[in-house]
Design a protein that fits this description.
Elements: H1 10-32, H2 38-44, H3 51-65, H4 67-77, H5 79-96, H6 103-131, H7 134-162, H8 168-189, H9 211-222, H10 225-237, H11 239-254, H12 260-284, H13 290-314, H14 318-344, H15 351-375, H16 382-394, H17 397-406
Helix pairs in contact: 1-6, 1-7, 1-8, 3-6, 3-11, 3-15, 4-5, 4-6, 4-15, 5-6, 5-8, 6-7, 6-15, 7-12, 7-14, 10-14, 10-15, 10-17, 11-15, 11-16, 12-14, 13-14, 13-16
C-alpha cells in the first residue's frame, strides 16, 4: 500500500482503519443482530409484525436525517471531532433501548441509532478518501465493505446464538458497551484531515459553516447530472439487498417456519457473494478504470436480477431464490465502492458535503424503496419478493447509463 497523503505513523494509520471498520461494523450490527428477535420484540411490546420491516427502514431513515448537517459541520470543525460525537450518540441510543417499553419508543431509538450510519457515511468515508490516494482509497473502501458485510452475513446468525443466552434488551446493552470501546479507539487513533498539510503540498482548508452558502452548494449538487445519476444509481442498485434484509424474517421465519438459526444460515450465501464481488474488485482495480469495473459488474448484477423476474413468475424454493440473490450480490460487490468513488469526485465541492448528499440520496432511495416494496406485499411469498426486487434493481440501469455516458463509457458490452 502506498504511503498516506498526510504525515501519520503506520501504527496509527492501521489503528485508524481498524477503528473506522469497527464503528461501521457496529452500526450495521445494531440493525442485523436484532433481526432474528424482531418478532419477539413486537410480541413483547404489543405491536403488529408489520413493524419488522418498518423498524429496519426507520434505521435507514436515521442514516439520512442529519447527514445534510453532519457533512458541512465536519468540513468546518474537522472529521475527528464530529465522528466522536456521532459514535457517542450511537452508543447512548443502544444503551437506552435496554429499558424501552413501547414500540413507538423502540422505533424512535432505531431512528437515532441509524444516525450512526449517517456519521459513518458523511464523516469517516471522506476522511479515508483524504488520507489515501485513489487506488488505495477504493481498495480500503472495498475492504471496509467486506468488514461491514460481516454484519448481515454473521449478524443474524450471531444474534440468534446470543439470543439463546441473553434477551434482546441485553443485546442492545452489549452493543452500547462495544460502542463506548469504539469511541475510545477513534479517540486514540483517528487523525484530523481538515487543515492538515499533505505530502503533495496541499492543505485541506476548513470551510466555514454558513446556512445560505450550504443551501447554494446543495442546490448545485442537485443540479449536477453526473452526481445525481451516480447517487441515485447507488441507492437503486442496493434495493434488492435492502429489501431482502428487511423482509427475510417474514419470508423465512414467519412464512417458511424456519428457526432463527436457520434464518441466519440462509443469510450467509447472499452476503458472502457481496464479499466475493469486493475481492474481485480488489484484483481488478490496479489495471482497470473505475467505469470499466462497473461495466464488468453489470453482467452478474443483471443476470441475477433478470433471473429473479423469471422465478417471480414461475416460482422457486428457498435454495434457488438464495442462489439467484447471490449472483446479483456478486455484481453489487464489484460495483459499489467504485461507483461511490466516482460519485464523490463528480463534484469539486468539499468531500464532507458531497459525501453527505450521496448518503442522503442513496439511503433515501433504499429506505423509501424498501418501504414501498414491503407495503406492496413482497413479504407475502418468495414469488412476490423475487418479482418486486428484480424490477426495483433493474431500474438502476437508466441513471447508470446516463452516468456512464457522461463518463465517456458506453453501457452496452
Amino acid at each position: 500500500m502506498r504511503r498516506a497523503l498526510i504525515n501519520i505513523r503506520p501504527i496509527r494509520l492501521f489503528g485508524f482503519c481498524i477503528a473506522i471498520a469497527l464503528f461501521e461494523l457496529l452500526t450495521y450490527m445494531a440493525s442485523d443482530m436484532i433481526m432474528p428477535a424482531m418478532l419477539t420484540v413486537t410480541r413483547e411490546l404489543d405491536a403488529s409484525p408489520e413493524h419488522v420491516p418498518y423498524a429496519f427502514n426507520l434505521y435507514l431513515a436515521g442514516g439520512i436525517l442529519l447527514q445534510w448537517l453532519i457533512g458541512p459541520l465536519s468540513d468546518q470543525f474537522g472529521r475527528r471531532r464530529v465522528l466522536l460525537v456521532g459514535c457517542a450518540l450511537f452508543a447512548l441510543a443502544c444503551v437506552a433501548a435496554f429499558n424501552v417499553q413501547t414500540i413507538f419508543a423502540f422505533n424512535a431509538l432505531r431512528l437515532i441509532q441509524g444516525m450512526g450510519l449517517g456519521f459513518v457515511i458523511a464523516v469517516s468515508y471522506p476522511a479515508l478518501q483524504e488520507v489515501f490516494c485513489e487506488a488505495d482509497a477504493v481498495k480500503i473502501m472495498a475492504l471496509l465493505g467486506n468488514v461491514a458485510l460481516l454484519s448481515p452475513l454473521l449478524g443474524p446468525l450471531l444474534g440468534s446464538l446470543l439470543l439463546e443466552w441473553i434477551s434482546w434488551r441485553e443485546l442492545f446493552l452489549l452493543l452500547g458497551v462495544i460502542g463506548v470501546l469504539t469511541w475510545v479507539a477513534l479517540f486514540a487513533f483517528m487523525p484530523e484531515t481538515v487543515g492538515t498539510l499533505r505530502h503533495d503540498g496541499q492543505r485541506l482548508a476548513a470551510i466555514p459553516f454558513e446556512w445560505r452558502g450550504i443551501f447554494r452548494r446543495y442546490v448545485a449538487l442537485l443540479t449536477n447530472l453526473r452526481f445525481m445519476t451516480a447517487s441515485v444509481a447507488l441507492g437503486v442498485m442496493s434495493l434488492p439487498l435492502i429489501a431482502w434484509i428487511g423482509l427475510a424474517p417474514l419470508l423465512l421465519i414467519q412464512n417458511q417456519g424456519f428457526s432463527s438459526f436457520e434464518y441466519g444460515l440462509w443469510q450467509i450465501p447472499v452476503f458472502a457473494a457481496v464479499i466475493v464481488g469486493n475481492l474481485i474488485l480488489n484484483r481488478l482495480i490496479a489495471n482497470t478504470e473505475l467505469p470499466q469495473l462497473i461495466r464488468y459488474a453489470l453482467w452478474p448484477f443483471c443476470g441475477g436480477l433478470i433471473t429473479l423476474l423469471v422465478i417471480g413468475f414461475y416460482g422457486a424454493a428457498t435454495p434457488v431464490l438464495i442462489s439467484v440473490l447471490a449472483l446479483y450480490a456478486v455484481g453489487l460487490g464489484m460495483s459499489n465502492a467504485a461507483l461511490y468513488r466516482l460519485a464523490l469526485f463528480s463534484s469539486d465541492d468539499s468531500k464532507g458535503l458531497v459525501s453527505a448528499m450521496i448518503g442522503m440520496i442513496s439511503i433515501a432511495v433504499m429506505g423509501g424503496g424498501g418501504s414501498l416494496i414491503a407495503a406492496a406485499g413482497a413479504g407475502d411469498s418468495h414469488e412476490s419478493f423475487a418479482l418486486m426486487a428484480g424490477i426495483a434493481g433493474l431500474m438502476c440501469l437508466l441513471p447508470l447509463r446516463l452516468f456512464l455516458r457522461r463518463s465517456h463509457l458506453p453501457l452496452a458490452a
